[in-house]
């Protein structure tokens, strides 16, 4: 249905062209501006691609890590996981799900090591966080230590 504008005194009314002809009023047919016409032809919303979603999540992780560091909050297990996710390119959820891909397993071992080194969580605490057995976490930390040469800080020296 085309809309028409009629001018009576100072008022402008929008009525259909058919209605204007019936009333015997001069018809001024208006068209939407060019950008509006393009918007009507193109879809209004294009969903982001999986790569765009992943990039956005990684940027959000980096921002959250910076904010936590600025506030001086003690590093926790979730923050350690987010750091590992940011460095390795895996999402938080991808590190916690059960999968045997070599890259993901190595990243998970790095997360185990970081949680043990950066927090006061015990092996069973870390295992519960991942839904695993504590011996799996212990094995992962030992593997990470063997691969990187990094050793865990001595927990007894912290208590003194």
Describe this structure in words.
The structure is a single chain. This protein is mainly α and 160 residues long. The chain contains 9 helices and 3 strands. Helices cover 62% and strands 9% of the residues. The chain has a 3-stranded antiparallel beta sheet with strand order 2-1-3. Helix 7 (123-130) packs across helix 8. It is rod-shaped and about 95 Å long. The model has no long low-confidence stretch (mean pLDDT 76).
Question: Any chance you could write out the topology, listing elements then pairs?
Answer:
Layout: E1 3-8, E2 11-16, H1 17-23, E3 28-29, H2 34-41, H3 50-71, H4 77-88, H5 92-96, H6 102-118, H7 123-130, H8 134-148, H9 155-159
Antiparallel strand pairs: 1-2, 1-3
Q: What does the overall shape look like?
A: rod-shaped
Sheet-strand content, in percent, reads 5-15%
Strand order of the largest sheet: 2-1-3
Q: What's the main sheet like?
A: 3 strands, antiparallel
User: What's the Cα radius of gyration?
Assistant: 31 Å
Name the helicity range.
Answer: 55-70%
User: Strand pairing plus helix content: what structural class?
Assistant: mainly alpha
| Low-pLDDT residue spans | none
Q: What is the count of DSSP helices, taking H or I runs of 4+ residues?
A: 9
